[in-house]
Amino acid sequence: MTANRIKIRPRGLAGSLIIGGLAGAGAALMFSPVSGKEARQRIRDLSEDIRCKTQNYGRKVSGKVTSFLGRGRELLKRKNS
Is the full-model pTM beyond 0.70? Predict the structure, then answer.
């Protein structure tokens, strides 16, 4: 018998974590005893925080991909020279 293995893709895992975090934060805001005005302000603050973190994560990933591609091109040039 072969064991079934679940493959987790990093991109899928990151998306799942973000969605789960948003759902949890939303539920916490919905059930917290605060006024509507305060809840809306918390949501705005939370969404701004998530936007900034997502942009920073995207920049880091982009930098790593660019670096990886640059190293790959260098290796190909050396091999073909």
Answer: no
Distance, CA of 35 to CA of 29 (rounded, Å): 10
Query: Can you give the residue ranges of every domain in the chain?
Result: 21-80
23-38 pLDDT, tens per residue? 887 787 777 787 878 8
Report, in angstroms and rounded to the nearest whole number, the Rg of the chain calculated over CA atoms.
21
Helix axis angle for 36-80 and 10-31, nearest 10°, is 170
User: Of 13, 41, 20, 16, which is closest to residue 29 (Cα–Cα)?
Assistant: 41
Q: Which residues contact 26 (CB under 8 A, 6 or more apart)?
A: 43
Contact in structure between 56 and 64 (CB atoms under 8 Å):
no
